[in-house]
């Protein structure tokens, strides 16, 4: 099963204000919860830092993260890298983490299209791939104080927008706000398309003020460079790194190499609702009744 592989002692040295005993208390709390799987101290530390060292918030986010893994089938079922839908997503999308940090020490995760044929695009599968990559990476990398997520909309057409399901978007926004295992400090759109308003119209109804405040729609790259320096970006947007199509293969190879652990992770990193104290939860408890949403009209 996927687990934190970084040097945990080194992380406490890097974050000297964190009291290890507080993190270990959360580990013990999790072990006392009959509905939760055992989670390592390293994994708990990732959530603890993401939650600004709030024990109660970390407990809540860990529970919500596990609950999403259990009930959001579109994002957390069929994670096998050899599954046809996953192989297709890897051909269509470039999902990767920039090799270098920002000057503030933050990580930058990037998503963009490589195959521009809208017929090959599946929004839920793209998000599944992105979240799996993030889950694998954060367990290998040193713990970071913040992440920026960047979506490059180059090549996006109205045909792609038509495939952005409202309920899938709601689940993504919920996960970003309530269950992400890293501290999100910026959500950026670059190389924006003329119909960006139609994409934002899908997002805004589900966004809390905190997420709205960290949403940046960049009309030019010079503004974006103030957050993510040009030199650490992919070559096709004038950066000094490899191009996106090459960077993605580094991370997709990593995912493929961890296939066995990923399959175990999909099976075990879940809530046992039969053992949850109180009332068991289901997808409706998280997102409401799915049938109430109409398809987006893009005309």
From TrEMBL:
It comes from the Eukaryota. GO terms for molecular function: phosphatidylinositol bisphosphate binding. GO terms for cellular component: membrane. InterPro entries: CRAL-TRIO_dom, CRAL-TRIO_dom_sf. Residues 85-245 form the CRAL-TRIO domain. This is CRAL-TRIO domain-containing protein.
């Amino acid at each position: 099963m996927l687990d934190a592989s970084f040097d945990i002692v080194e992380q406490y040295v890097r974050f000297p204000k964190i009291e290890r005993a507080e993190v270990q208390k959360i580990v013990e709390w999790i072990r006392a919860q009959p509905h939760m799987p055992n989670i390592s101290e390293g994994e708990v530390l990732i959530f603890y830092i993401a939650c600004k060292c709030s024990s109660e918030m970390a407990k809540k986010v860990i529970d919500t993260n596990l609950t999403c893994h259990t009930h959001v089938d579109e994002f957390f079922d069929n994670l096998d890298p050899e599954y046809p839908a996953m192989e297709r997503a890897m051909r269509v999308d470039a999902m990767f983490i920039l090799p270098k940090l920002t000057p503030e020490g933050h990580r930058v995760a990037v998503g963009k299209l490589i195959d521009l044929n809208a017929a090959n695009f599946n929004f839920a599968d793209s998000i599944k791939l992105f979240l799996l990559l993030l889950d694998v990476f954060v367990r290998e990398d040193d713990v970071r104080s913040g992440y920026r997520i960047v979506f490059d909309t180059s090549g996006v057409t109205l045909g792609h927008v038509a495939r952005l399901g409202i309920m899938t978007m709601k689940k993504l926004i919920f996960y970003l706000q309530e269950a992400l295992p890293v501290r999100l400090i910026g959500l950026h759109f670059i190389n924006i398309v003329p119909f960006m308003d139609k994409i934002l119209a899908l997002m805004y109804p589900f966004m809390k003020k905190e997420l709205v405040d960290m949403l940046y729609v960049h009309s030019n790259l010079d503004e974006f460079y103030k957050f993510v320096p040009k030199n650490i970006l992919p070559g096709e947007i004038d950066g000094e790194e490899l191009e996106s199509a090459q960077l993605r293969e580094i991370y997709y190879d990593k995912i493929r190499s961890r296939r066995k652990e990923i399959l175990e992770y999909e099976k075990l990193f879940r809530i046992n609702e039969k053992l949850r104290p109180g009332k068991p939860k289901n997808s409706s408890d998280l997102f409401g009744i799915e049938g109430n949403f109409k398809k987006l009209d893009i005309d």
